[in-house]
Amino acid sequence: MSSTVQSHASLVEFGQQHVTKGLGRVVEAVMTKGEGSYVTLGDGRELLDFTCGIGVTNLGHCHPKISKAAADQCMNLVHGQCSIAFHGPYLELIQKLLPMMPHPSLDSFFFWNSGSEAIEAAIKMARTFTGRQNIINMQGAYHGRTFGAMAVTKSKTIYSEGFHPLMPGVFTLPFPYWHQLGVPADTPASKLSEMCLNQLSLLLAQSSAPRDTAAIIVETVLGEGGYVPAPPEFLKGLREVCDQHGIMLIIDEVQCGYGRTGKNYAIEHSGVRPDIMITAKGLANGFPLSGIISSKELTDKLKPGSMGGTYAGNAVACAAAVAAADVMKEENILENVNARSEELFAALNTLRANPKFAPTILDVRGQGLMVAVEFASPVGTGPYDTFRNASVPAKLASRVAKKCVEKGLLILTTSVYEVIRFIPALNISQADLAKGCAIFAEAVEEVVKEG
What we know:
By secondary structure, this protein is α/β, with parallel strands linked by helices. The protein has 14 helices and 17 strands. It has helices spanning 8-18, 52-55, 64-74, 88-97, 115-130, 147-151, 178-181, 189-206, 232-245, 296-299, 315-330, 333-353, 396-406, 430-450; strands at residues 31-35, 38-41, 46-49, 108-112, 134-138, 170-173, 213-219, 221-222, 228-229, 248-252, 276-279, 290-294, 361-367, 370-375, 409-410, 412-414, 418-422. A 7-stranded mixed beta sheet has the order 4-12-11-10-7-5-6, with helices on both faces. Helix 3 packs antiparallel against helix 11 (315-330), helix 4 (88-97) packs parallel to helix 11 and helix 8 packs parallel to helix 9 (232-245).
């Protein structure tokens, strides 16, 4: 590429030509700047960002304290390889995270780069700790695109299509999500949990004996599968089964953790103890970092060298994460999440209650600032989808998301259903949240009118 200044259009064209087609994009544009809850594109558009880079820049783009911590670290030590020696930010981050853990047994940390890598490590650990192979995952789950993570991902076939055979020893359990189970949206969480826990009993009796089962892996809030919180009854039932049979309970908090649901970690809502917990995304507010956290009693069973990675626990990313942990406390982030969450649910439920949209919006759900709106569909996932409605417009979620972008709001769809997810910054202001909700309501009204 020429060193001379290029037009935005030519840069987009270059990217379309030379960036692998395997990457999808919401907008065909170059992002040039991020500040707080806003991003700027190369064509001059400024968008209110309700994506946070898919739940990553949770404390806003380029938070000054976090960015400064990373910049300062760059002038001190950029790469202190974890298999050579400790480095300061790695150890300081553990000190910051220990008081935030949902259970005191979670006292042993390994930092890697991404959520997907962390899932790989958790699977390795579970197999080592138990001497067993099989993994039970959830229908609708998303855990990543690397080989093991891809095998336990069941949210969409796009992530594994054409890549089979996948890692063996994976068995899928229904998740307590009304649409997947084909029951009404107002079905009590206790009933949904009973249905799925009964299926777990059958799975252990028919498909994977407890003596062969290393772990059950579950997202505390189903992410790519539709932003569906796991009921506390379900999580407690999983814990009981794991305790009964010596199975590891892996809690994936990559997207729902680190303040996103109004608690440090979403598993706190249930009081359930993880054997292994995964954290990533918002941990370093945009710098690549993930954590695999377990008990020292378990991780002392690992042989030195069985874990590691060239960039694992990078010093710059860890320094950013230390600053992010400070910001979480200093700026009372959890309080803001819970206050803004009430306002977001109120706005979306008001929209849902509007008679004009009564058949259109099937569900408003989530926790904290991890919230979804599910629309009806004339075709659903096929002819046996109980909730098909021929009277509603087609492809509502993608059309509403596109309309939001046109109006200045960046927002994402998710799942195989017609779902839009809200992932604003955890420190978003009351005014910006209200602005985003107003744009969303306008977009829904216009798309419904278009038919």
